[in-house]
Amino acid sequence: MAGAGFNREVMHIENNDSKHISKEEVAKLIHLSQEAKKQSYCPYSKFRVGAALLTFDNRVFTGCNLENACYNLGMCAERNAIAKAVSEGHRDFTAIAIASDISDQFTSPCGGCRQFMREFGSHWDVYLSKPDGSYKKMSVEELLPVSFGPEDLTKEKVPYIPNNY
């Protein structure tokens, strides 16, 4: 599995209990995020990021950051991995590992990626890692407390209020 299949193949992590990930499986997920980081296209910031997303049925999708000369058209690694998974029919996620080249702190997702992850639930794990493989485990909920999600759109709203502008 090391180094193979990153272009279009989907990886699998053997795990009988999709809600619990062993330390070995976390290490594998972090390794896959570090490998994905190598594919980053970041000619402007030179800030490489990779992500490895574990679905509820133990498939792994990787992503890397992708910059553009029109800065706001770039795509973060986390959103790239999630988009790949969703395009393959996956909507339930167990964990995501995030890697960068920063060695003195854990790599944390940007605010936009936190909201993007929240779209798919707040109770899944996010592994913030360093290049040496060490990590900090957090949940989407911890990264984005008191968040807005799809369920908020179904809540009762006030009656129509005309816009008088």
Which secondary structure elements does this structure contain, and how are they paired or packed?
Elements: E1 11-12, H1 23-37, E2 49-55, E3 59-64, H2 77-87, E4 93-100, H3 111-118, E5 125-129, E6 135-139, H4 140-143
Rg is 17 Å
Order of helix and strand elements from N to C terminus: EHEEHEHEEH
Q: Tally the helices.
A: 4
* Average pLDDT over all residues: 89
| Strand segment tally | 6
Q: Which structural class best describes the helix and strand composition?
A: alpha+beta
Strand order of the largest sheet: 1-3-2-4-5-6
Low-confidence stretches at least 5 residues in length (pLDDT < 50)?
1-10
Distance between the termini: 59 Å
Which oligomerization state do the chains in this entry correspond to?
A: single chain
